[in-house]
Specification:
single chain, 191 residues, mainly alpha, globular
């Protein structure tokens, strides 16, 4: 199947884009799809961009995708689409865990728990199990005291208060080496 960017222009194409990209990774790269979605900012465009960024993280570009995820999360927030904002932050949680940006990951996890988005749809059972495992790893890496402090930052702030610092930290993280070198993602598949 040969796919061109025009196939993403219809509503059906936008909804199916992540699945199409997974089946035909050489036809249209997630990077090309992301470039297309940056030209407009409808909710469908942001949805495609969210999913293609997640795929790019699994292509070995986790650090690079965080800066773009910061823009996507800010756009979801401005649009008032809280469901997609929190689903995008679940992806960001996984990338932060991968890059060992542990305190940011735990802050995001606390915020996800506060709004009830940890187990929200769409999330496969294996992905939910991985999330629980990753939280355990973060607790072990940070220690109980640092873990609880970071988690409380996410749990106690209201959505408008927590989103701005998360977006700022994502942007700062991508401008520095504090997370270490980008690495290949873990075997966890996109959810």
């Amino acid at each position: 199947m040969r796919l061109v960017l025009g196939d993403f222009m219809s509503l059906d194409g936008v909804v199916q884009a992540p699945a199409i990209l997974m089946r035909t990774p050489t036809a249209v790269s997630p990077t090309a799809a992301c470039r297309w979605t940056t030209s407009t900012q409808t909710r469908w465009d942001l949805f495609v961009r969210t999913e293609t960024l997640w795929l790019r993280a699994f292509e070995g570009q986790p650090l690079e995708t965080l800066a773009e995820f910061a823009d996507v999360i800010a756009a979801w927030h401005r649009a008032g689409d809280w469901a997609n904002q929190w689903l995008s932050l679940r992806h960001v949680f996984g990338i932060c865990h991968l890059l060992r940006a542990d305190e940011l990951a735990v802050t995001i996890h606390g915020a996800l728990e506060r709004v009830g988005a940890v187990d929200a749809f769409p999330f496969e059972p294996i992905a939910a199990a991985n999330l629980s495992k990753e939280v355990g790893e973060l607790r072990q890496r940070l220690g109980d005291r640092r873990f609880l402090a970071a988690e409380q930052r996410g749990r106690t702030a209201t959505t408008p208060v927590v989103i701005e610092p998360i977006v700022a930290q994502l942007r700062a993280l991508t401008r520095s080496d504090t997370a270490g070198p980008p690495s290949r993602p873990s075997p966890r598949r996109p959810s």
